[in-house]
Amino acid sequence: MSIKPVPPELAAFIAGHDAFLVIGHKEPDGDCIGSQLALASFLKRLGKKSFLLSSGPFTRTEILQYEHAFLDRVPDGIPLSKAALIVLDCSSLSRVGRIADQLPSLPLAFIDHHAAGEAAGDVRYIDPSAPSVTRLVQALIEAFGAVPNREEAELLLFGLCTDTGFFRHLDTAGSDALLSAARLVEQGASPKRIFSMIYGGKSLFTRKLMGEILSRTEPYFDGRLLVSYVTEEDHRRYGIASRDSDMLYQLLMTVAGVEAAVVIRQESENNCTVGFRSRDTVDVGSVASQFGGGGHRLAAGLSMEGRIEEVRERILEAFDRVFVTLSNDEAY
Which of 79, 91, 116, 306 could form a disulfide with 112 if both were Cys (CB 3.0 to 4.6 A apart)? Predict the structure, then answer.
């Protein structure tokens, strides 16, 4: 399946401005960071200025090396008369974090592969069928009649591999992602190097913490849902850099009969983040959106006030409705 073509108005949007604030969602991942960096590099090749913004935090080990390239506030001295905003990997300003309150009123474009979010912005390139936002940025570069340079190709493949789980999430409609990856490799991107970036360099603490999280995992709805949690004490003992969400979800989703997995993290005294993964039948993006979160059908996340116990109850109530609906559908 091919992705949507780049809207002509997006190319015109870029051509019509000289400077861009390139913004991603809070708690960024490899797809968000890779798409921001690659787009900023391409804009520079077009003779444009760009400023990379992120509310952070950069908690994933594979993106820590890029944190220095991002600003956590809007810089002074931007030529606003010819400037614009481009938001990547989320389709509404509600997901960009505290930076949203600082943004000047400028023309606004969204590039995203998540369906959630209000229909805002002057230009929207939204394609839920795309495997990653880096895939859409690659399409944008190619729509200008260009090809990614080696650095851009590496960043784009990094994001694509992040959101496809190094292609293991692709199904029969995944040929476009593989063909686009081949073009990036031709431009110098190294799958071997990117695999090491995403899955290598982990500390022993990450494995110890993963063992504790796995030991707490409980099944619900006849084993169709697995739920576990991370406490504040875990953060103190192992450090925030000991998170290894992708490998954790990989292990949970290999359990026989499981259709979705949830990990709740107590980030502060009265706030939790919640990560969701689905094998196929459960739309976890829809579940997350009920609580103001975002994502897509197979992977989503949210932030919620409360302690682990109360957050878990609210999440279980939402999944109860999901599994009742699925059971009714299966009965017919």
Answer: 91
Same domain membership, residue 116 and residue 212: no
Q: In this predicted structure, what is the pLDDT of residue 228?
A: 97
Q: How many structural domains does the chain have?
A: 2
Q: Are 301 and 289 in contact (CB under 8 A)?
A: no
Here the CATH number for the domain that contains residue 154 is 3.90.1640.10
> What is the chain's length?
332
Flag whether pLDDT at 116 surpasses 70: no
pLDDT band at 28 (very low <50, low <70, confident <90, very high): very high
Chain centroid to CA 68? 19
Whether residues 242 and 293 fall in one domain: yes
Are 182 and 285 in the same domain? no
Q: What is the pLDDT of residue 325?
A: 83
Q: How confident is the model at residue 263 (pLDDT cuts 50, 70, 90)?
A: very high
